[in-house]
Amino acid sequence: MIVDARQAPRPARTKRGVARTHRGPRRDRLDELQRARIIAAMLELANRGVSAVSVAHVVERSGVSRRTFYQHFTGRDDCFRAAFEQALSYASERVLSAYRSERTWRERIRAGLVALLSFLDEEPAVARVLIIERLSGPRALQSRAEALARVASALDEGRAEASGTDSPLTAEGVLGGALAVIQARLAAPERTQMVHIGGARDGEPLIGLTNQLMSMIVLPYLGPAAARRELARPLPASTPLAVERDGSLLSDPFKEAGMRLTYRTVRALLAIAEHPNASNRLVGERAGVSDQGQISKLLGRLEQIGLVENAVDGVGQGGPNAWSLTTNGQRIVQAIGAHTQDAVPNTRETR
């Protein structure tokens, strides 16, 4: 059943608190992008501590309306739980992919460790949420516990090659020690203020801990000689700390463009991407805007902020306009696809 927004002051809510709205491929795409922006804002703000973050802070940082926030989340804690679980899933995929690429236990552990440290270097705000932030709520705590249990299980496989310990508790102890070292580096005041690598020891990239952590991990399983060999291995290439990168969980091209994310805006940009040199009427039809005055104003604003351009020289020449995406417009359309499951059409400019 489709609910007419004009007849209902607030959309009906599901058991999870997410509003039921009119569905469709483009509506779904916008919902996913709005959710991604809200989660990115929460991850960024959570560095100050979740208790200091309010819904108002998240709404302001993400650029969505308060109503949109509550269409996706029941409140601040629900939003943080979703942000934490998404970040954890993203990090886990990186680590597992690297871990499975190697054959021996020691090389699998090293590959997984390098992937984890690289991820934490690339996403310092997310790193603090995953490693430092105190969690509340059973679901977030369970997610973290399950992730740690998987890591401990992978470490425990070292007992099959062990020349030293045969205790199943060794993996838990090794994991706890490694996390304590990483946590101490992330919590250093110098690091929280950094955007790029600095000179202080605690501000150096975490990837530099690889050999020391590997030495600590293999020691109880393979003995002192193997631990010394880990210390002597070449370090992986350093990864600069970065607050925003293409593909980052915190990247937000709409914020950079200085625009508010709306359903009509996304539909208009996608319409132009799919139909280069589109007229006002075609863009309006695809964006669901029947009023030609409204679509003209929307296209004018998009042109003013440099996302679209009109191939028709002059105004009032009698012919239809021909809209295409600028380079910035193409980048934003590609970002929509990066944050959603839908494929984005080829956005190469056509003039």
Characterise the protein shown here.
- The chain has about 350 residues and is an all-alpha fold.
- The protein contains 16 helices and two strands.
- A two-stranded antiparallel ribbon has the order 1-2.
- It is elongated, with a radius of gyration of 25 Å.
How would you write the strand order of the largest sheet?
A: 1-2
Q: Give the radius of gyration.
A: 25 Å
* CATH superfamily placement of the largest domain: Tetracycline Repressor, domain 2
Taken together, the total number of domains comes to: 3
Helix content: 55-70%
Report the biggest beta sheet as strand number plus sense, adding barrel if it closes: 2 strands, antiparallel
Order of helices and strands: HHHHHHHHHHHHHHHEEH
In round numbers, the mean pLDDT is 78
What distance separates the N and C termini? 43 Å
CATH class of the largest domain: Mainly Alpha
Number of helices: 16
Strand content bin: under 5%
**CATH architecture title of the largest domain:** Orthogonal Bundle
CATH topology label of the largest domain: Tetracycline Repressor, domain 2
